[in-house]
Write a structure and sequence with these properties.
Pfam families: Vma12
Structural class: mainly alpha
Protein name: Putative transmembrane protein 199
Mean pLDDT: 80
Distance between the termini: 56 Å
Helix content: 55-70%
Subcellular location: Endoplasmic reticulum membrane
Low-confidence stretches: none
Membrane topology: Multi-pass membrane protein
Organism: Scophthalmus maximus (Turbot)
Number of domains: 2
Radius of gyration: 45 Å
Strand content: under 5%
Length: about 200
């Protein structure tokens, strides 16, 4: 955090002029502080406390210039940030935590990997599981198609009592088959989600 200004040439010139004035002399303590600042090699710094005293003196003596005019070519002095050293116990503890988390992540990723079956091509049990899953998918698709076709046929046949034109019967059958198909898809998706969500 800044606590002083780096003074410029304008400040040096005005303060030298102030130090030479005799009609409104500076207080002895402020005069000493300002002389000390002017005698410092570049870059000289003006503490905020001295700047406040100088501002108060300029206001009290009603000088024709203000402190901000003196500091026009000055800048804030920002001290260099010194990074505190790391606590070795904390660093060691953080390393242990990182290693533990990495091991947990590795275990989570590889929990489904069976190292004993790594080099085997496949067994009859694996083949049987694959056949069963394919069979279930084929049956599900076949069931979906039969349901939609049956809904279409039923709606087409049943709509003859409502409509005399074939176009109206076909449209009503398509609408009924679409509704049944969407409902069937909804149930199918929910079932698939349930199966995929199982551990």
């Amino acid at each position: 955090m800044a606590s002083s200004f780096v003074v410029g040439d304008r400040f040096r010139a005005k303060v030298t002029q102030l130090l030479g004035e005799t009609d409104s002399p500076l207080p002895q303590r402020l005069r000493g502080e300002l002389r000390e600042i002017l005698e410092k090699p570049e870059p000289a710094t003006l503490p905020f406390s001295t700047a406040r005293k100088l501002k108060q003196h300029l206001q009290d003596q009603r000088h024709p210039f203000y402190l901000h005019e003196l500091l026009e070519d000055s800048s804030l002095h920002l001290p260099e940030f010194v990074k505190p050293p790391k606590n070795p116990e904390l660093v060691a503890r953080l390393e242990k935590i990182k290693i533990k988390l990495a091991n947990e992540e590795y275990s989570r990723i590889t929990r489904n990997v069976n190292t004993q079956e790594k080099n085997q091509i496949g067994t009859l049990a694996d083949f049987g599981r694959q056949v069963r899953s394919v069979k279930a998918i084929v049956l599900t698709v076949f069931n979906f198609l039969v349901t939609v076709v049956a809904a279409f046929a039923c709606s087409y046949m049943g709509s003859q009592y409502l409509f005399t034109e074939t176009a109206a019967r076909v449209i009503s059958a398509v609408i009924a088959a679409s509704v049944v198909g969407l409902a069937e898809l909804y149930v199918l998706v929910r079932t698939m989600e349930g199966e995929l969500g199982e551990p």
